[in-house]
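Objective 1.3, modelling of assemblies. Example input:
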Amino acid sequence: MSGWHVSGPLAERYASGTAAEAETWSLEKHVETCGRCAASVSAAVRAGAAGPALDGIRAAVLAEARRFPAPVPGRAGEASPAARRVWPGGRRARGEAAGAPSGPPGPGGGHPPVPEGRRRRERVPAAARRAGLSRRAPSRASRPGPGPLARLLWAAGPALRPSWLTALALVLGGSLFLAYGVGYDSTRPLLLALSPALPLTGVAMSYGRYADPLHEIAASTPSGGLRLLLTRTAAVTLVSVPVLAAAGALLPPPATEVLKVPGPAAWLLPSLALTLAALALGSFVGCRYAALAVAGVWAALTLAPRPGKPGLPFFVTELPEWVSGPSPQTCWAAAAVVCAGLLAVRRSSFNRLETL
Amino acid sequence: MTGTGARVMGLTVTHRRAIALDSVDLDFGTGVHGLLGPNGAGKTSLIRVLATVAAPAGGRVELLGQDMTAHRERSRVRRRLGYLPQEFGFYPGFTVREFVAYVAWLKEMPACSVADAVERAVERVGLMDRIDAKVKTLSGGMVRRVGIAQAIVNEPDLLLLDEPTTGLDPEQRVDFRALLREVGTACAVIVSTHLAEDVAAACEQVTLMESGRVAFRGTTAELRELGEATPHDAPDGTVSPIERGYTAALRLHRASSWDPGTAPDTGSGSGSKAGR
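Predicted structure (tokens):
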């Protein structure tokens, strides 16, 4: 290059945004190769009106760089040409402006693109604008990413929605009310009868076009299908089992020997088997109907009065025998395994929308 | 993973026992493809099969060079897919940011890149100033833009948009078409629409569907030429060449497929015959 260098007044005009277009061009071209002038322009810009804002950006960029020490991988990290365009009027984000006059790049190396944002252009000095200045920029540094808790809740999706949690709370509250308020002796066996079926209602609400407003989008993603359904079922189970166990623990001790029922460990396997049965059936008729059917059959078997057996209801007299002891438990485990196998065979049916 | 675009061979789709697509062969390469046709022509059926949410009754589907029968390939393709259904819901409590991030999570994007990708997608649809607003507080057009943002959040290689301009006002449509053209430089975009002007403004290739069959395939310019070459009965200036081309191609198709033995009863109207 020739002996031309950026003069002090030009640097100041540039910093304040009053330099003519032609001057700006030659200055920007020049500072790409001349370190001394780049430094003087940098100093002028930092001393000017844009100084505090630039400091903010620099801090934000550095903070960002420290959050991701390694360059963010591939497509997602670097703004592709296609990513630079913003919607309104097709204006481009200017974060990629070359030769940002704010000193040498930070230690992280990769400047994350700092888009200009959508505001109409206001009187921001030209230099600062080229540096990608925007009022939004500093707040980007503190932008909340999805934390582990959020991702956990996302996994649960619509399964843990308020209505189901309310139902769970009602069962908990209701059984306590029955036991302490009304003094109903058979609360404990009743809770035992309800416990295996309760997670089913959560499963019914967790997947499919009736239950999940996002279903059509979810079905087109790699997470869609059986995996998402199992994740949500697991979430339902993880919430309901401790709650139901706690309800059992809070109930008063049984009054008579007849009313003694096995603890929560006993209904875990039945609950698992019923849930898997609902899922397997769901591969044919959809989760909603499947869960309703399985829960309905279970309720009919356990809660309905039996003719010819007056006195204590079935769930007091016989249900405990169904779930306690090694041989019933083995049967439940076998049933669970069978249902799981059927589910594995039928897994591809969850990839499509039609049945769900 | 080398393939691009989408290809279907002998694709037949049934919808509630009616035939929505009748042995269709199509391929879509890089660029913006318009899928044009009257209601019930089979556009949505085609898009849903391409989005891997609906199963075809017959034929082969190849997306991004992968056959769609095996689970592994399907998952791999789904990671690179963007899909905006005609109708979609959202969880009531979600903000725009959470909604788009949730879909990014479903698409198995690496957690560290999600936050940036979400902002970029939302910015591209011009909703940056509402990014932390609840989705349920937004207008219909804005919700549609949120839908577009979730579709492009993973910078897909195959982008499927079903009636994306519904609910957008004219200015937003113009912006949206610009976005489409730009996305289409790097990947295959398939847009279904019943508006000929959408196609004219944003698409290079047009596929005209009618009663589950392909009525016309070609460039937008070819469709326009067809319209200009066809005498029309409407007063000058009220119908654009592309719309005339649309009508002319439909008429040609109906005339050629009119065979009393095999052709469906097409009648003379433009209503729906097969499909939904």
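Chain B touches chain A through 56 residues (CB under 8 Å).
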